[in-house]
Structure formats: structure tokens, C-alpha cells
Amino acid sequence: MRPDEMLPLLAIATFLNGLLAGAAIDQTVRHAPARLQLGIRRFDEYSQAVRGGRASAWYGLIDLGATLLNLALGIIQRTGRHAPDQLTPLDLAAVLAVLNLLVGMQAVPLLLAIRRHIDKKSALLVLYARIARWQTIRCVLQLSAYVAVLWSLVIVAGQ
User: What pTM did the predictor assign?
Assistant: First the structure.
């Protein structure tokens, strides 16, 4: 694929990864520390309200779209005839997308366990602390993927 053909895909990938990175930073920096201020019960109510509805569906679709696009761009770049300096950021973005997906899957059992332990304050404290740790890792991965895709966009746009 020629650089001018890749540019729109890279722009979309940059946009999607930027949305995810921003949401991850918001979740990590603003929401997770709120559990200490609100108390675990109030934070749990807030957290349940935030996770339901359209926002979660949109976030999931954006996450899946960015992951698939990062992987596709990495494969296209690897099989194409492009300069080696373009290979590094897109390969990195593809690897980060897979790692982000794997780390995100670690939170699912924890989120499901919350419903089983809704009346146990100590269990909720432990679960939310573990979720916060996984979220911090996801935040770093998503921000790194955004930087990698942005780096690729700058390289391709400069050609």
C-alpha cells in the first residue's frame, strides 16, 4: 500500500487511539482515585452507573476498532515495501494493541466478581484496587499505542 493510501487509515487509527488514550487517562487519573474520596459503597454505585448504557458499548466498539486497525496496519506495513523506519512504530502499535486486549481481559473476571461481593466491603476494596492496577497498565499501553500510531502518521505524512 502506498503512503498516500495509508494516510487515511493512519488518521483514523490516530483518532481512535487518541480517544482511547484520553479515556484511559481520565479513568486512571480521575475515576480510580475517586474511590478513596467517595468511599467504596458510593464509588461502587457510581461505577455501576458509569459501566452501563451506551457509553460502555461505544467504548467497546472504539477499543475493538482501534485494536483491529492497529493490527491491520501492522500487517500491511510488514508485507508492504516501505522504509524500515515506518515498520517500527506500526509493529509497536500492533503489539501494544494485543497487549491492551490481553490486559483488558484480566479485568473482566474482577468486574464480574463485584456482583458476588456487593455486600462485602473488604472484598470490594480488594477488587477495585486490583481493577485500578490493571487500568493503570491499560492506560500506559493505550497511551503508548497512540504515540506509536501518531509517530507513523507523522512519518507517512512527511513523505
Answer: 0.85
Cα separation, 77 vs 90, whole angstroms? 7
Task: Place 83 in a pLDDT band, splitting at 50, 70 and 90.
Answer: low
DSSP state of 27: I
Per-residue HEC secondary structure of 53-103 comes to: CHHHHHHHHHHHHHHHHHHHHHHHHHHCCCCHHHHHHHHHHHHHHHHHHHH
Query: Is residue 5 helix, strand or coil?
Result: helix
Name, in order, each residue with C-beta under 8 angstroms of 32's C-beta and a sequence gap of 6 or more: 131, 132, 135, 136
Instruction: Give the list of residues 6+ apart from residue 121 with CB closer than 8 angstroms, or none.
Output: 40, 41
Q: Provide the pLDDT for residue 7.
A: 93
Residue 133 in contact with residue 116, Cβ under 8 Å? no
**Axis-axis angle for helices 3-26, 54-79 (nearest 10):** 140
